[in-house]
Fold:
Amino acid sequence: MLSTLMLLATLLEPTRAWYPPNKPIEVRVASPVRLVLTDFAGKLQETKGSDQVAAGVVDVKALFPALNSPGTYVLYGVAPGKSLVEFEGTPLVFEVFQDKRRGAPPGPMIVRVETLAYIDMTTNKGDMQMIFYYDVAPNTARSFLTLAQGGYFDGLTFHRIVPDFVIQGGDPRGDGTGSPGYFIDAEFNDRPHEEGALSMARTGDPNESPGVPPRGDFANTAGSQFFICLNYKNTQQLDRRYTVFGKVVKGLETLRAIGSVPVADARTGRPAEPVVMQTVAVKKVDKDHNPYRSMLLADQPAPSTQPASTEPWAILLADQPAPSTQPSTQPASTEPASTQP
Structure:
């Protein structure tokens, strides 16, 4: 029984993590199965030939023409006679990146393949479960998951609580000035800062306002500090100015409990009692533990249409020193997974 469970857990396994655009994308398949590819919103992608494959190495790019186009896709293995929601093992995420620099050739530049994962976080106020937006913030999601996998967040605190706005954590110093030793380029996107949204804290730009985006020296200063939104009426003004990279899908009562902890210092948001992230565990998705299911079925509620708050929002990391206006001698890392915390 144990060997069968292990086989199912590794039903689909990429032969490498990165694939050049002119090479096959080869995946090892542990047993005969039907392969199904969707985009990150759950739309089925067409196959070229039969989707029934035998055990062995399969070039999925030859089977699914969509993998020749930039985008984010999810590959499932489905046993004969089963539906997609009854997939076996852990799905694979394919991120087909395009070079967006001016004058760059069209088409894919590189393909990244990884297993679909989520987070189970335990705190002294309760538990939360989180999913990640691989489609709009892949580098940010990968950085967070890599740090969590290495135990970076275990024992850290939510050092800032702004009632009815956000809770903020992920600082190894616990005072709003720490980082993992590298920066992540901003991945601003259209995901709303609704209740439960995970977003990256960064240094505030003094010239920034709801109508003026942050300058690059300020936009690209995220590291490991993140915040979780409490009330979209007050946080929607952060939309497209901070990087939303995931969402709390279970444990909103814990989020609200943390957001209700009394604050000892209103200027810094320091809570009167420590709120500790006891464990931040990375888990692989399977058919019985799939917090992405409703999202991949495009079953997301529409964001609130209430008017934006006029409360100041530059409080996020506002106590960090502003970055120098001189060119940095340490460029922001675009490969956070290879950088040691």
Remarks:
- The helical segments are 2-9, 60-63, 138-149, 216-219, 232-235, 252-259, 293-296.
- Confidence is low (pLDDT under 50) at residues 1-8, 297-341.
